[in-house]
Design a protein that fits this description.
The structure is a homohexamer.
Chain A (H helix, E strand, L loop, with lengths): L2 H12 L3 H10 L6 E2 L3 E2 L7 E12 L7 H5 L4 H8 L5 E5 L11 H9 L4 E4 L2 E2 L2 H4 L6 E3 L1 E2 L8 E6 L3 E3 L2 E3 L4 E5 L2 E5 L4 H23 L12 H13 L1
Parallel strand pairs in A: 3-4, 4-5, 5-7, 6-8
Antiparallel strand pairs in A: 1-13, 2-7, 3-9, 3-12, 10-11, 12-13
Helix pairs in contact in A: 1-7, 2-7, 7-8
């Protein structure tokens, strides 16, 4: 897929829902694509889509950490903030620990300034009072003021990671909405965009029928008559 | 209790609070009536009351599930959506798994269209972006796009279930507000409505006294003087 | 530290953030000061500061509890509500159990009427529909209608307790904001206020630079040039 | 499959291992067949095989339980102990609660006297001091003296249940060894016995090679040469 | 109850089982008496009985702990080891944290030398390789080398505590066997000893009948005929 | 440190205990060195020491896994088994999931044949019936027959990992006994061996005194007189 095609597919995907994506992925034999327990910090701006840039945190080890090393631009946490490309999504493996922050408001401000598309972690965020008003979507497992270094040591960027029970590979697509975050190989973006968009048009049509009183049987999933009615409606809209 | 009496009792109960109900139930030797960890998806419409219609999910088993069987109108999840009577509450045992959806927006739209009074699950809901705007109250343990079939197999409707650590029997009363959901035998509805309403009038009276500076001693619980003052106030209002 | 100095320090601290405080405490060798998993019930009024008044709950034991003893003004839960001094914060060790309430709306109304500065528990609150509109900040681990006595027995006030994984001693300072609650010895209040206020001015300055495009390197942490620029800016503002 | 064929298949399966069975089931598209966290109480007698007889426990509810009802021969827990056929395995859904007993030594003695092949629960067992010396294999998630009725209400026998994260249907085969318990449809028993027995002969052969110094590559999985050597060895033994 | 009577009652209780005790306590309205998840370190010597001497641990706080304070004979952990009376049981509230030790082999050796009857904690023990051969029964939630001070601060002895989900008051009776540990008020010891001993004689009788083929109905619970047969048997033995 | 010095230091360390090592590490400012929840499969052979060879598992992702890739000698799990040097310890990050196996008996047989010193994982082992009789020490968080590929994807060897809440770097020393496993930088081995050996001689001396009736005060920690007596005893032994 060309970069342009990918960009276009992601634009479509951003208008869909994670529910639609997980259904399309399940049909393709990929049930393990949902990052669980991760929700938008700012309820008014919950959507993002972009390619994954990964950061891995392991438990702290005092001999590897000094005040200087953990604030150095070379420290993987700091490096990630400068290195994550604009339009990409920084995704952080925090081993699901929600009692400790992974990033604070200044580092996330830098990500926003650099045009990063979103931040996702199964850990917590710090300074969330300030961060809740940022335009960059931040999805996390919790809010906590405890300093990252109390529990975590950042070791690597751009390696495969675990996040919310799902595997995330650098360059995967991440898409988040109110339900959480879905992750999938970028090579599937075009077909997911096409089939997902059709699925959502169909579900919009079905949902109207349902709200108008149609029963589940014959409607969801649609039988031949319902599908024909949808095709007609779909052409007209 | 006649159906009319029950209906009238439920109307009263809907104006009370789950805190009042658990207190009344505890006085009757029923401490195990609170469904824990289940909260309203739509914070603007948190209340519902109705009789329980139950659905049980167990772990998935591939030999029992095909794309056809799990979308058939006979599949218990789908059957429940059509069979739950108007005014009843669909309550789903999802074994407390909040990483996976149990129902999505189309099935819940159908429940709303059919006049079902509410949905309760200790699992998650999918498509919550859409669902948050529905008028039907939805109480759940979380939000997640992961498809139901990835973790669950629906086996039965209208059997006793576990939900949020409480037992729910078909025909029990379910009542939900901001604190969560309380469940109790329908046969108690009339006395709970009467005694609960009195308790809330008393607590309204006591709370005013407290906010006016009355100490806990003599007020909560009320002594004879406070009770007498309440009885006078209660008659006048 | 005199009472006046402490009061003045707390006024400053209330304008800071828990993120700033945990950083200052970490620099002083105190990493274990964050009460995790405790968030404001009323999102519109999340801040408080005050000295800790503690209440300890242990598992219920039927032979120690009768309807009379647990509602007596001598019962530690009731005693705490009357005894916690105005301007102090009532903090309750509920062993992290979020399925059961620790206080309801009348007891919290009394705390508010008495001028108590806040309530913190790693357990749940009851009657949260009403309580969400109170002016007194309430931080808790959850919402639940289950009665306190179903799980808890209040045994003591004003002893050291555990709350959200942190130790809290009577007379410690508690400060809460959107991230949660930080706890520290009152003797540190003056220096934390001074150094924390400077840290926040610096971070405000750095964050503007970052939003204007400055990279992390040289900015966060600031190098000599950035610090000099800050000192100049700080004097001018 | 005739009863005789099934009996013969089960005899073979009992000589295999749960590791072999899960591998064979995974090859057939059945990855969800392992009951996790359930181990033999008596380390000297860990094996059993038999058809599942199920018992379901839900949270206690005081209005459904009196001292008489829960000790009546009609109470599902008691009924199961008399109704589970000889050679079958009683498997109990205890929602993974290991702090409370599900059966004590007298009920398990009755199961042993009746020729039941084993007992499995993801809950705890009581009276384990005595039970550890029984000949009937007992697999459980823990040991606890707390009475069943403090947490559980038995509602049904012979319905599909959850146990240790797996679905169990009445009539499924259950097979347990040191690793835990595997569950699968009885219709697969013959082919699992045949293919599993071959797999174990092959693995015995491979393990000897490995212990004699053979590398993983070419041995595990076996290449054509290794397979040929195995076939020769297998015929000779 | 005189000290002699209590001593005699405890001697009887030590011959019973925790299963019998929880049943007797449940009959007396005391269902909350089981310390869950706590098992004997030495499987060959699992029994003990004695009065509770309590020690409370809260989360560590660096400003309250120096190498000198935590090894001082005045530190509550050390004080407990010298102050727990011979024949009593040291029971430690470790908030269920099994990743960290609470006592090591030298402190437990001192307890043994002083004639203490047992040690119980819902936390872990250290140096368990050595400790497993001690004659003093040690019941704990796990084994771990991590030093107590990494997670815990000992604050008080002889206050009510939580242990394994149960309340323990100083002077309560603690009795442990293979199932775990039961706790109850000392004032009940005599009646529990008498009724418990009769229950065990009855259950021994019933179990023989069951192993000889008697059905549950009429036997467990015993009907009038079975009880009469028991009374006869009981007199003869 | 030369290889010979390291070897000699490790020989000494193997005779000590993990309790001694964590104490020595804590004195050096390294409290985060204990791998929690990991215990020996074979209770008769619990000790090992060696340098860490690491393997990292993340959640499965179907598009990265085929039956061929996960059994290829290039698959990191298989590669690790051939690549871990003799005398080293294979340590596996399984994210603490104890319901799924990480290695089975043939792969561990290969490790044993190759002279690997031990295996450690915070996940489970499969085929533990066979493995329990191996001479190679195996420390794990549980036993489970579920196939590794159902939950895990092996991604890398010889990177820093998390195991049981601790960080493990390739080349760190791992030492395991009955309490669990301790991990530390190899550069500290010589001093830990020397100081640890002295600590254990001292503790042996102190424990005898304690068992002979010495109180904690003056003995543990030792005062000047006790230390002098120890020095004398130490020279004589």
């Amino acid at each position: 897929m060309s970069d342009t095609d990918l960009t276009q597919a992601l634009k479509v995907i951003e208008t869909l829902s994670t529910g639609t994506l997980t259904t399309q992925l399940l049909k393709r034999g990929l049930p393990s694509t949902f990052i669980a327990g991760v929700h938008p910090l700012n309820p008014d701006a919950p959507r993002f889509v972009g390619l994954a840039y990964t950061l891995r945190l392991i438990p702290k080890r005092e001999d590897k950490m000094s005040p200087d090393t953990v604030t150095s631009p070379l420290y993987p946490q700091r490096h990630a903030v400068e290195d994550c490309p604009p339009g990409h999504v920084l995704v952080i493996d925090a081993r699901g620990i929600t009692e400790t922050g992974t990033l604070g408001d200044i580092l996330v401000a830098r990500l926003q300034a650099r045009g990063v598309a979103g931040v996702v972690t199964d850990g917590a965020m710090r300074d969330t009072g300030a961060m809740m008003n940022y335009s960059i979507p931040v999805f996390c497992g919790g809010r906590a003021a405890r300093n990252s270094h109390v529990d975590h040591l950042a070791t690597e960027t751009q390696v495969p990671i675990a996040c919310g029970g799902a595997a995330v590979f650098p360059g995967d697509v991440l898409f988040g909405d109110e339900d959480g975050v879905v992750v999938f190989p970028a090579g599937l973006a075009a077909e997911l965009a096409a089939d997902g968009a059709r699925q959502e048009r169909l579900e919009t049509f079905l949902q109207r029928r349902v709200l108008d009183g149609a029963p589940i049987a014959g409607t969801y999933p649609p039988d031949a008559d319902t599908l024909a009615a949808f095709e007609k409606w779909d052409k007209e809209n």
